[in-house]
Task: structure prediction
Amino acid sequence: MNTVGLARCPGTCGEWVQGARAGVPFLIDCPIDRFSEVKVDLDIQAGIWHIPLRKTKALQVLELLKEDLGLPALGGQVEFLQQLPEGKGMASSTADIAAVAAAALLALGQDPEPEHLARLALRIEPSDSVMFPGITDIEHVQRHNYRLLGPALPALFLALDWGGSVDTEVFNARPGLAEHYRRWEREISKAYQIASEGIKQGDLEKLAAAGTISARCNLEINPKALFKPFLDWVLQNGGLGVVTAHSGTLLAGVFPQAATVERKIRNHLQKEAQQRFSPAYLDLFNSHPGGILANAANYQENLTGTKT
Result:
């Protein structure tokens, strides 16, 4: 008998803060309204997965799930209904892994708990914390501790990318990363404190200030040539700061989430940013509450194009 599970997981606009505490790497995710959405048509007896060839990490998590649950066989069809750009710092791998695992668990009649999804993802690679609701601080490489800092704040992100890609596993294994984190630990500690206050107080200006500090620190190991002119332009046009993909190519201006601001961005600032900075990719994101959505009702709404 075949059963179906449907799940989606948000991506990120990089990280509000990323660095190390006492030598242990950590990050604070920045979830947005872009998703990896997956349908798993499960056949417990099949033993074979039909899945897109390049989605190797999704296949890995299904094998881990089979082992964890002590199942003799597990297989079926995996279909990606929405996907995130890869190598840009939008948590595409983590979102794929979490959405696939959640959909498979749902098809098996089990609740896809965020903690379980995080443990699975972290066994495969250094991972983001997008499977948790809200904004989460996670030690994504070594200890895997995590802590919910609070709900996501309403925000708009005008995101630019100048091409290329960064492999998360390669980035986290690169020589000099530990030294880079050590050199900037004091600044990252300051950014963390400001971010925590901003989240607790619902103060986007503080959170954007923390993002800007962390983004500046990251330039040493992941340079973005137009960082300063873009930051200056964002601040001149009503933005509050920037957030970056610390192990990716994305850089985004942070703006208040208001109808007048969104109109200004869509009617004017997007075009000006394209002319001024010549990005290969430009998009406007909204912040997202974070966490997995996994039920048939949401899937039906997605099919009709209605936001959920």
